[in-house]
Amino acid sequence: xxxxxxxxxxxxxxxxxxxxxxxxxxxxxxxxxxxxxxxxxxxxxxxxxxxxxxxxxxxxxxxxxxxxxxxxxxxxxxxxxxxxxxxxxxxxxxxxxxxxxxxxxxxxxxxxxxxxxxxxxxxxxxxxxxxxxxxxxxxxxxxxxxxxxxxxxxxxxxxxxxxxxxxxxxxxxxxxxxxxxxxxxxxxxxxxxxxxxxxxxxxxxxxxxxxxxxxxxxxxxxxxxxxxxxxxxxxxxxxxxxxxxxxxxxxxxxxxxxxxxxxxxxxxxxxxxxxxx
Amino acid sequence: xxxxxxxxxxxxxxxxxxxxxxxxxxxxxxxxxxxxxxxxxxxxxxxxxxxxxxxxxxxxxxxxxxxxxxxxxxxxxxxxxxxxxxxxxxxxxxxxxxxxxxxxxxxxxxxxxxxxxxxxxxxxxxxxxxxxxxxxxxxxxxxxxxxxxxxxxxxxxxxxxxxxxxxxxxxxxxxxxxxxxxxxxxxxxxxxxxxxxxxxxxxxxxxxxxxxxxxxxxxxxxxxxxxxxxxxxxxxxxxxxxxxxxxxxxxxxxxxxxxxxxxxxxxxxxxxxxxxx
DNA sequence: CATAAAATGTAACGTAAAGTACAGTTTGCC
DNA sequence: GGCAAACTGTACTTTACGTTACATTTTATG
Lengths: 277, 277
Fold this sequence. Notes:
By secondary structure, chain A is α/β, with parallel strands linked by helices.
C-alpha cells in the first residue's frame, strides 16, 4: 500500500506495449476519475478496446478490474481525509525531488500578481479594448512568441490587431499608420533590445499609448510607457523563465475578452462561419 | 450541481424513515468511500437491506445507483484535482481581490507536474538531446508560439533544430528529410487540428520518434507518439490556458541545456562572437 | 521477404450487481 | 385493540459489466 498507483504506472509504463501505454497515459491525464468508471468508458476515452484496459490493469498487478478500482478509491479517500499530507505523500515520488524550476516559476507568478493591482489591470485592458483604435504588439528575442500568442487570441475578439513581426525595418514602416488613439504593447526583458527601445521611443513621439510588460529590473522602455507591468523571471536554470509574463498575457486576453463580450460575440460567430466554408 | 451530496443529505435526512436515515448516517460516517462500493456492501455496512439503499439514493434525487456513484466520484475528483474552485468559489466573498485565472493556472501547473514522472522527463530530454539527430518542432493554432519559444532557446544549445512554421504544405516538404533517428515534438490541444494529425501520422510512418505535448483529453496524435505529456488547460476564462504547457516547454529547455552543457558551451561562445561582429 | 511472435480488437459468455414485486412487519391513529 | 398506512426485507428478474476465447493485425527477426 506504500506505493501509489500513479507511481506504479510510472514504473511500468516503459515495459508496456503501445495501446496499454495509451491507457496509462489516459489514466494519468485524467487521474483518477477515469479509472473509477466502467471498463467501457475507460477504453472509449483512451481509444483502445476493453481487453486492453484489462490487460493494462492486470499488468499493474491487480487480479481484477474491481480490485484496481478499490485501490484507486482507497487512495482517493485517503487524500480527501487529510488534504495536507497529499502534498507530502503523492507529490514526491520516490526520487523525492520535485521540480525546482516549477516551484520557482510558481513563486514568480504569485509574486508578480501580488504587485499587480486590479486598477492597473483595468486601465490596461481598457486601453486594449478600445475598438476604435488599432492595437500593436511587439516582442523581443524570447518574448516575441508571447506577443504572437496574445495576437492570436485578440485578433479573434477585436479588429485592428497587428503583431509586429519579422525584420525591424518592417515594423518601422508601420509607424506611419500609428497615431494618438493607438496602443502599443511591448514585451521586453533582459537583455533588453535596442531595437525595441528605438521603436518605442518613436511610437511615443507619435502619441501612441504604450503598455510595457517587462521583468523586475524594468526595461528602459519604461521611460516611454504609459503602463508598466513587471513580472519576475528568475529561476534556477541557465535561462530566465517567462512563465509569469505568459500568464500576464493570458490574464489580459481573458479580461479583454470579457470586456468585449458583446461586440465580439458577433465577430466570433462570423469567423466560425468563414472557417466552415 | 452546486450543492454537494453531503449537503443534500443534511437537507433531507429529517424527512427520512429510520432505515434510510441509517443509510445516510453510514454514508456520512464513511464518506464517501462506502457510497462508491456496491449496493450490497453499502447495505451490509449500514445493517439494512439493499432496497433501502436504493430508496435512500432515489430520495436524494438520483435516478439510479450508478448515477449517484458518478456524482460522488465527480465531487471527489473535483476536490482532488482542482482545489481552485474551492478557493475561488467558496473562499472568496465577492471582492475580486485575487486573480482567479492565476490561481487556476497555478493549480493546473502543480497538477500537471504531479503527473509528470522524472523518468518520463528524462526519456524525453534524452531524445531531444541527441545531437546527431535532427529535432523538429510543430505547434497548433494557439500553441505554435510555444514551439517558437522552445525553438528560440534550443537553437542556441544544439544544431539541427527546425521549427516547422508557416503553411502546411511547407512542413510537408520537410518530411523528406525526416527519418528514424529524428525527433518531432508536437503541441496539440483542443480543438485538435487535423493538419497536425496528418503530419504526425506521416512522420511516424517514416520512423520519426514523436513527443506529444497535449491537454488532459489527449490529442489523437497520442496514437502515434512515443512520449506523451499531458498538461491541464482548464481555467475560469473563455479561453483555455496554455501556461502549464509553457512551463513544460521551459522545463524541457532547462533540462536539455543541462544535458548538453559541455557540448553547447563552445557553441554558445561561438554564437556570442558572431553576434558581436 | 518469409515466418514466428506479440499485440490488439471483436464478439460472445457468464455472472455479479442493480432493480422490482410483493409479502411481512412495524407504526400511528381513532 | 383494530385498522390502515408506511416502512422494510426476501426472493426473484433483468440489466450491463467484466471477462475470455479467438481471429486479425502488427511488429520483430533471421
